[in-house]
Amino acid sequence: MGDFTIEEMLAMQQALQEKHKDKWELIGPEAGKHKLLWMLGEVGEVIDRRRTMARMLAALPDMDTEMRRLANGTIAKLERMTDADFDGQRFDFAGE
Known about the structure:
Layout: H1 6-19, H2 29-80
């Protein structure tokens, strides 16, 4: 792929444009403007996804601590449970 030149890319685009001329819009200033705006929107989405992922990764230690606390609380409740807890009155994990 290192030998792929701009000229080859343009030739491929022109061949594809000719092949799909009945389906694709013509290449021109207005179409170029729309495609550039679309590309900028896509770049913005990628940036947003990367920032969201970075925030999620930064929060992992906190989530890990919270998940461990919840799991330990649930295990402790399960260890204390009896058959009477399943009568629908005492089966409450949200209480603590």
